Structures are given as structure tokens and as C-alpha cells.
Amino acid sequence: MEDFTIAPEEEEKILKNVFSSLEPLKLKVLSSKAKKRAVIYKKIAGQFEKGKKYTELEVNGILKQIYPEDHSTLRRGLIDLGYLARMSDGSVYWLKEND
Fold this sequence. Notes:
This is DUF2087 domain-containing protein. Pfam families: DUF2087 (PF09860). The protein is of the alpha+beta class. About 45% of the residues lie in helices and about 15% in strands. The strands form 2 sheets. The chain has a 3-stranded antiparallel sheet with strand order 3-5-4. It has a two-stranded antiparallel sheet with strand order 1-2. Helix 3 packs across helix 4. The longest helix is centred in the middle third of the chain and has 12 residues.
């Protein structure tokens, strides 16, 4: 995970701009800016339970509810940024613990 220092006020502003709803979580736009993406993926990672194992189908189901336009990009981003881990065959996913 990239380490950005983001003030709570700035994080709140980003969330309001990119999500149409926070409850349930609905993403309007996936920003190309790294800082905004960090805030987006952190928020999305919060939809997964610590210690729970997920199938790819379950992960896709959660992400499709958040951003139906491109759930695959969200899944890859969560893995690439270190929020989710998966078995090498993609059969099981889980929320990574913070170090």
C-alpha cells in the first residue's frame, strides 16, 4: 500500500466527490490520481471482513454492487495495493492484515 498522508477533511472531500453513496457504497468514478485511488481503495477494502475467506465469485459480487462498470479493475487494484490477498490459483481471497 502506498503511504499517503491525507488529512481527514481531504479524505472526506474525496469520498464525497467519487462516491454517489457511502451507505450502501456506490462508486461514481474511479480516479486516475494515485492519492484519490488510495482513498477509494481503502474505503472499498472496508467492505470485507477480517479473517473471512471469499471466493472470486463472492468478491466480484461485492465489487459489482459498488462499481458495476468495472469490478475487475477494483479487484486487481485491491490486490495490487495490498488490501486483498489471494491464493495463486485465484480460488480464495481475504483481507490482508495491516502490518
